[in-house]
Amino acid sequence: MAFKSGFVNIVGNPNVGKSTLMNLFVGERISIATFKSQTTRHRIMGIVNEDDCQIVFSDTPGVLKPAYKLQESMRNFSETALTDVDVLLYVTDAVEDIEKNQDYIDKVNRLSAPKLILINKIDLIDQKKLVELVDLWKSKIPDAEIFPVSAKAKFNVDQVMRRIKELLPENPPYFEQDQLTDKPMRFFVSEIIREKILLYYDKEIPYSVEVVVDEYKEDDSLVRIGAVIYVERESQKGIIIGHGGVALKRVSTEARKSLEQFLDKKVFLRIFVKVDKDWRNSDKELSTFGYNLD
What we know:
The chain is α/β, with parallel strands linked by helices. It folds into 2 domains: 4-167, P-loop containing nucleotide triphosphate hydrolases (Rossmann fold, 3-Layer(aba) Sandwich); 185-288, K homology (KH) domain (GMP Synthetase, Chain A, domain 3, 2-Layer Sandwich). The protein is 35% helix and 23% strand. It has helices at 18-26, 69-80, 102-109, 127-140, 157-167, 185-200, 234-241, 246-263, 283-288, and strands at residues 4-12, 44-50, 53-59, 87-93, 115-120, 145-148, 210-218, 222-231, 266-275. The termini are far apart.
């Protein structure tokens, strides 16, 4: 049997469960998955290696209308997902407004690669509503195959994987057989810290921060990690730190626990908070933080 490999890009609006599905497909915790929208900021790759195939999944930021330069970069990641793709997974859910990104759907329709529409969170609706949604998506993207799924219940995920494998072209592997992702370890450390910020702070705070790992030293028994949380204003710095440093201590403790589980080693973690005014609209800062501005 010929070996198959290809790029499978995951796109869709924010907060529809793309990252959770990505983690299920890859079988590892690659993408941050929280209840808050705009969780994914970068294009994150997860690689599945099997005896007869290699599937290179990419989770992209949710499709949105940009309000500042950071969101323009996030939109660029979503746009590039429509190029160099062998199978496209368009993730929607049972409750989102289908009409809000018609321009992106039009671009999806122009794509010649196979397209699978995954309707997530079907446990929230009845059969009648699901049939209506399937019919609506058939009219929106006529040449797509439609799969009702539930990431929460892991319903139909295996069937989607089987179909992806059937659609892959015959190619040699693109990456080494033991490679899981294209991102360095520092990236995942920063994402785990940012996940805790998303979970423990409200309103604008989680979307105004960037996490940079400035130290990562590993030996046989311990990983020493230094990180900086950048915020846009002094008032945000105060909120992140909290009265007497309590809020930052909670984030640090929870991040350390998750990092020890992720790295399977003891972790010494120090976190500082710094102000970088209006970094979300600065080309220089966004480029430094690794965002795509093209």
